[in-house]
Amino acid sequence: MPVIWIIVAVLAIAGAGYILGRQRALARAGGDRRELHSLPSYYGSNVALKVAVPSFLLLIAWMIVQPFVVENAVSGMIPQSEIDEGSSLGLVMAEVRRAATGLENAVAQGVITEDFARNARADITDITQRLKDAGQIVTSDITQTILHAAQRYRLLSATGDMMMAIAVLLVALAGALWGLRESVPLFRARNAVERVMRAILVAAASVAILTTLGIVLSLIFNTIEFFRLYPAWDFFTGTNWAPSFSGRGGSSELGVLPLLWGTFYISLIALLVAVPIGLFSAIYLSEYASKHVRSIAKPMIEVLAGIPTIVYGLFALLTVGPLLLAVFGKEGLGWMQAGTAVMTAGLVMGVMLIPFVSSLSDDIINSVPQALRDGSFGLGATKSETIRQVVLPAALPGIVGAILLAASRAIGETMIVVLGAGAAARLSLNPFEAMTTVTAKIVSQLTGDADFASPEALVAFALGMTLFVITLGLNVLALYIVRKYREQYE
Amino acid sequence: MTNASLNTGGEAPKRSLRAQDALTKRRNAAERRFKAYGMAAIAVGLFFLAVLAVSIVRSGAPAFTRTVVEVELTVSPADIDAAESQLFKTKAYQDLFVAALDRQLTNNGVEVAFDPKAIERLLGKVGSTMREFYQANPAKVGKPVKFELAAASRVDRYLNGELTRDAIQDSRFMMKTDLDLVDVMVDTGVMKSSFNWTFITGADSGVDNPGGAGIGASVVGSFFMMLVVLVLSLPIGVAASIYLEEFAPQNRFTDLIEVNISNLAAVPSIVFGILGLAVFIQFMHLPQSAPLVGGLVLTLMTLPTIIISTRASLKAVPPSIRDAALGVGASKMQSVFHHVLPLAMPGILTGTIIGLAQALGETAPLLLIGMVGFVARGYPDGVVSGFVDPNSAMPAQIYTWAARADASFYEKAWGGIIVLLAFLLTMNIIAIILRRRFERRW
């Protein structure tokens, strides 16, 4: 039974439980709802929740646990001799899974019979070819061991699915009975329902913690795996980034320093563009602009923040890059080799960050108390003198926080550098050369065809970890500064 | 006491107060300069916006038009029989087409001799298109049929002025002499540009056929992804905000949640992609490139945005509403769900739509869960396959096009951006209208 039907069945039982529970409570009270402790709908909801919550929890838990149980049982069937040189149990198991899905789909299409799928022997029939004919993706020739494991895998999964359906439906029915038994006038149905709802609310709020946990765990486990294959010292101090391509052999050099340098250089240029423009816009909008101008210019600038980064990436690659190349390239000053360069990505990223800097600074400048300005005007200072010598110093911590947030945004930005910065990792001071960043390399290492267990792919997780730690540090620092500053004038 | 002597040191200059001294002049100049810097900054920001808009529209508009050759011809049953009896059947059909084209040009008063091979270079495999058409529609035999055939992308670029006559190298793709034919056909109105419906409704084509590429299939992929995001992030986000805003006690656990939410809002999107890859694909073995996985990743990414805006709109509902509900005997839960939540709903929906718009344009996490690097050739077969079968999404499709070597795809990428921005604009306008219409000020 597919999962979707289990869900439908549970929902149907819950719906029936709602109606029955409500009716039963009312009937027990002799049709007089004043006799009930809670509103009748609460009795119904009580039954429905007791059906749905435990059975869905069981369903989710079963679906998470079952693959591990099945995999464990099947992986025991694969002898060490079957695992080729340079391969691993995980890869063989992936092959087994693929073969099992292939069999499943081929049976569903009617290309092979159920009986054949269960009992075929790879050494007698040409099962690989038959699966390929059925349009299934099978990477290599299926050996008898793998086929046998796949058949077992399929059988166990099918049994597990069946057992899951039965167990979930039984839990649902038991929940319905339990809830119905409780549906008597004196039962405090509202309190019971509200307790469950509160638990659901807490669970929803905990998703944020789970997400962070998921990020941290997935980064840490894979990073440890990477450092087992590649020394951590070489990763953090290496000045050369030269991953070998999969299949060609040879050792890779995976030093993070050139990538960090590229990241910081591009971010620096972006901030050099965004901070002056953003800051002066914020000052003009909050101190000089008339209401009318402000109401037009502020949303216009903020449109820049709503544009997806892929658009900026394309803008860098196809508009800004060729434009810079025309000026600084071979025909012009001769500094630039290709359109993709640190300058290209930095400029475009700077444009992206302008609204970010300007609206944060705008808020902060606006929260400087008017009394400070009035005092300064009273002493005869001009408006610009007031801003430079009173307002900005007062707002400085907040502005620094805003710049740090913008910097963290710049460091984590992906699409602009993937499209606009080039792919060569190098340590150079020339802003017209192509360089690459941490984010761009995460994308290229994980979207290539490198084997997932190889250091060339796992390095992406170590890069992700580096990125996560840096941006998290900047964010925490920035939020701390901003919060501290806010308290100052409240 | 001591400072008082400062002004008595010298005779005050005897001149009009209106005449500015050097210092005042300098200060006023500084004031004007400072103001000018501010205006310049705004101008630069708006200038970038304008450049961005112009380059999007200018480069993307050609994706919506294509050059077609319109030829009307009647094929008699005898012609069909004659063509089918030949060895090269499509060649025979092509000859029919060439004859019809020649007739049409002659009717327009142009006498031009052209190479039938040029037709193949300009319009692709005309013969097989015609043969398939007549085999699919036997009823059309003997009746006048108007064929509208898309021209090769090089012709498009020639007519746009991107490709000049001198730049063309004679090759099997195009000869210089073909352009004479193009010019004649354009002059007589046989070749004209029409709206490119294939781009809106079609699926991606292979790397060698930029003309046939469309964004339709990836719009569907994006749609299924947004459905997942909406169905998951709205209830979870609202439930989390209600807990944090209305029920949460002041304790460590609540603080932990708060810190997590504010940090997640600032985590780079690519890190969410890594999470999706490790948890959903590596660990849970969900299908790669599926809109379901994309939706899950984007949900986690959008949640902080939705929670932050939902909390703001819950906070905006005045406490008197809650007090009144409690006063007439509602439980805390009832006061929230029956009174506060409905009043906060417009704000919540606005925040959700803005969060969805953000998720719709997000690309980086999609790259990691494998929504690029393959060709999304068709539409999903049904609802389930829409969720779990590999598909592309709009931003991922744009990236795929931008990463291809053939420059003709760049135009498609810009066109895709126009479609994407149109969706974003619509969503934002809906959000603004919702806010204007239903927002209550207390």
Describe this structure in words.
The complex is a heterodimer of chains A (490) and B (442). Chain A has 490 residues and is mainly α. Chain A has helices spanning 3-28, 40-75, 89-109, 114-119, 127-133, 144-182, 189-229, 232-237, 257-288, 291-306, 309-328, 342-366, 370-378, 383-412, 415-420, 438-447, 455-488, and strands at residues 241-242, 253-254. Chain A has a two-stranded antiparallel sheet. The longest helix of chain A is centred in the middle third of the chain and has 41 residues, at 189-229. Chain B has 2 domains: 67-194, no CATH class; 216-438, MetI-like fold, CATH 1.10.3720.10. Helix content of chain B is 66%, strand content 5%. Chain B has helices spanning 5-8, 22-60, 77-84, 89-107, 116-123, 126-136, 153-160, 178-188, 197-201, 216-247, 252-264, 269-283, 291-316, 319-327, 332-361, 364-368, 383-388, 394-403, 408-438; strands at 65-74, 144-150, 191-195. In chain B, helix 4 (89-107) packs across helix 6 (126-136) and helix 10 packs parallel to helix 13 (291-316). Chains A and B meet through helix 7, helix 9, helix 10, helix 11 and helix 12 of A and helix 2, helix 10, helix 11, helix 12 and helix 13 of B.
Descriptors:
heterodimer, A: 490 residues, MetI-like fold, two-stranded antiparallel sheet, 74% helix, 1% strand, B: 442 residues, mainly alpha, 66% helix
CATH architecture assignment of the largest domain in chain B: Orthogonal Bundle
Main sheet summary of chain A: 2 strands, antiparallel
CATH topology of the largest domain in chain B: MetI-like fold
Query: How many separate domains of chain A?
Result: 2
Helix content of chain A: over 70%
Number of helices of chain B: 19
CATH class assignment of the largest domain in chain A: Mainly Alpha
The percentage helix of chain B is 55-70%
What can be said about this structure in brief?
By secondary structure, chain A is mainly α. Helices cover 74% and strands 1% of the residues of chain A. In chain A, 44% of the residues are buried.
